[in-house]
Amino acid sequence: MSLYRRAAKRDDAEPEVVEVFLAGGCSVIKHSGANEADLIVGYRGRTYLVEVKTNNAALKPGQAEWAKAWEGGPVWVVRNAAQARKALRMWAESSRIASLTNGNGLRRPANYPASSRRRPRIVNATTGPLDALPSIPAPKGAA
After folding, report:
1. pTM over 0.85
2. pLDDT at 76
């Protein structure tokens, strides 16, 4: 067996998505783990996992399994620069709300127990949290 591993194929949309995140003040690491998220994005003290997909490409079965098993925050699916900008706006709003509240959107005492509700495992920048993993079509007019 060879010690050298062939580099993973990157999605065509990835350069423009990375450019949007960098321009928005994010730190970005291109990740190449098998079936794991493509990007690790740091923004305002939080870490986001981003899977970049081109056009109508669906998550591979291994990627879907990995995302469901991941116990951290949700995995975001982003298909183009417009969706990356939308994700960035959502993260900024989430960060703003968290700074005004206890992080859950409600003003509660600091010792109030956190919700035990399970977070969604995958978030689509177009439609929001997903409980299932259907193939997510690209927006109309997207290249």
Report:
1. no
2. 92
